[in-house]
Input
Amino acid sequence: MMATINSERPGRGLRPAYHERQGSWASIAQLGCWCLGLIGLFAANWPVFCENAFSFAQRAERNFQQARKRFQTNTNDAEAAWQLGRCCFDWADFAKNDAQRESIASEGIAACRQVIARDPKSAPGHYYLALNLGQLAQTKTLGALKIVDEMEREFKTARDLDAKFDYAGPDRSLGLLYFQAPGWPASIGSKAKARQHLQRAALSAPGYPENHLCLLEAYLKWGDKKSLRRELQLTEGLLPQARKEFTGEAWEQIWVDWDKRWTRIREKTSELE
Output
């Protein structure tokens, strides 16, 4: 039976980029800069807007150490391996420098590759491999280009195996990858693909706020007012129930993120009126 995300553990996945990008992505140097900031960008912002950043970092490190210990106790346990991959991804968000981020991500990548070698049909293995590759990409410049291609392949494989994993995480992450990446010929960015996967994620896991927030941010960027208003109303209606469903210590960090993004989306939407 395919393992699924425990309801007590937040599904997070590929992170949206918060900074506003300026100008063209025509040059390779610019593309390298984009790859450096591909995912996990809110981690760098936690100390700025969240007074609980230190406790969140401690929790991520504690989860990482526990997952590592469990995996080292039984390296043949596939679930222990991909859980380590997940915790590596989360802990890498709080890395103090590229060397630490690369070290943590590499450990997650190795664990997930081990899962896939033994079970090529492990959706969690492919999914967390892609996410840790994203963390690794942040430490590279031009070398990140090949990593992005591999991320795309792994997210697609995870989706084919279990589209609902991590609250439609594969579609959500593919949508963000296509949304944030430069377009052809520089990279894989595509408005049409981004829209397709982000909408699919929202339909597949409609009660999960992250899917709707990502879609709203895309509509804002594209200036799609009609879709934006429709999705805004839908999201506003689901948030009260989501606050009841996704509760507890493990969800504190992600709710800080969601609340900040929701406020920002509403503010920017009002500016369009």
Notes: Residues 1-8, 18-37, 39-49 have pLDDT under 50 and may be disordered. The two ends are 49 Å apart (CA to CA). Residues 191-273 form one domain. Residues 55 and 253 are 9 Å apart (CA to CA).
